[in-house]
Amino acid sequence: MKLKKILLALLLVVIFSIHKVHAMTEYVLPNINEVEASQTHLDSEQLLELLPKNADSNDPFLALVNPLNPANIQKPVDLITSNEGIPYAASIEKELNQLLQAGEESGYHFTIISGYRTSNQQADLESTRKQSLLASGYSEAEASHLTNLYTAPANATEHMTGLAIDILGQDWTTIGGGLTEHYSEVGSAQWLANYAANYGFILRYPREKTEVTTFNFEPWHFRYVGKEHAQFMMKHGLALEEYLALIYERDKQLEMEKMSQIADKQAVLKAREWLEEQSKVINDLFETIPPKK
Ligand SMILES: [Zn+2]
Predict the structure, then answer these.
(1) Which spans in the chain are helix H?
(2) Please, are residues 64 and 155 in contact by the beta-carbon 8 Å criterion?
(3) pLDDT over threshold 80, residue 88
(4) Contact predicate 38/211, CB 8 Å
(5) How far from the centroid of its chain's Cα atoms is residue 58's Cα?
(6) What CA–CA distance (Å, rounded) separates 37 from 198?
(7) For residue range 169-200, what is the model confidence (pLDDT) as tens digits?
(8) How far apart are CA 257 and CA 265, in angstroms?
(9) What is the distance in A from the centroid of ligand 1 to the CA of 166?
(10) pLDDT tens figures, 65-84
(11) How remote is the CA of residue 243 from the centroid of ligand 1, in Å?
(12) Nearest 5°: phi and psi at 223?
């Protein structure tokens, strides 16, 4: 009867812990074994040791919106407008201005092409891009495929967060350049790729991470995540999806550790209880034996 109670208590602890771990994992993320530090080539265990302690999956600056994790609810975003009239999240105003200022000081003048977009605007953009591909003679399937490579479906673009900006340098726009991979060949794009992390921005869709992000290389799309996180991702060569996978893995390991400590403690208590009971039984036994005369 007693054993049954103990087993039931342990079962409840296990169920509770699984539920808790499960509740934390709200994003669909790459498997921890697939996380690849393209720059430092460290494995996930080494990365976990170096992971910034304050990295928190609930940090609004680390919010993930992608085709696997669409934002089904448009959260209200406090907006501000750039000099070009482009809206973006007011929470990144200071850092974005610092980035633009540092660019100026290095001889690069930038234009913000796009910032915050609502889900409806994204749906319009998706359809406009597809229509223009169809008009250029692509088949329905080809047009859909090409559109999806660069344009997220409605609800699946992180432009909805206001934390993402599309940005081009004057050295590119003055020669008629647009949002194409070739932008990466000019000085302003290389400057952004090298220095944006110092201001908390990451090159969100790098060339070597297309399988993780499901987006083609976009040398113009930058995303604010915060300086420490941006620098970590850049240094090691990690996509936001991989960074979040590391955070979840760390939290899972911590939770498991806590649970096993609780289980250990309970096992020790039970063992002590059992020993006390046994010694009582033995004492009682001795008491019933009549003393030698
Ligand atoms: Zn973009």
Answers:
(1) 2-24, 44-50, 93-105, 119-135, 140-150, 170-173, 187-195, 210-213, 227-236, 240-288
(2) no
(3) yes
(4) no
(5) 10
(6) 19
(7) 999 999 999 999 999 999 999 999 999 999 99
(8) 12
(9) 5
(10) 999 999 887 788 999 999 99
(11) 20
(12) -130, 130
The residues, ordered by sequence, that sit 6+ positions from 107 with a Cβ below 8 Å of its Cβ are 187
Query: For 117-126, 199-208, 260-269, which range has the lowest pLDDT when averaged over its residues?
Result: 117-126
Lookup: tokens for 265: 């403690």
| 162 CA from centroid of ligand 1 (Å) | 11
Query: 288 alpha carbon to ligand 1 midpoint, in Å?
Result: 85
Residue 157 Cα to ligand 1 middle (Å): 8
Give the Å distance between the CA of 267 and the centre of ligand 1: 54
Q: Which domains does the chain have, with CATH numbers?
A: 39-46+59-117+157-242 (3.30.1380.10)
From first CA to last CA, the distance across the chain in angstroms is 41
Report CA(177)–ligand 1 centroid distance (Å).
16
Q: Do 62 and 289 meet the contact criterion of CB atoms below 8 Å apart?
A: no
Structure tokens at 69: 């994790």
Q: What span, in angstroms and rounded, lies between the C-alpha atoms of 244 and 120?
A: 27
**Centroid of chain to Cα 187:** 29
187 CB neighbour count, 10 Å cutoff: 13
Instruction: Tell the burial category of 126 from Cβ atoms under 10 Å away from its Cβ (0-12, 13-18, 19+).
Output: buried
Six token digits for residue 129: 């891009």
Q: How many whole angstroms separate alpha carbon 248 and alpha carbon 57?
A: 7
* Residue given tokens 């040791």 in the structure block: 49
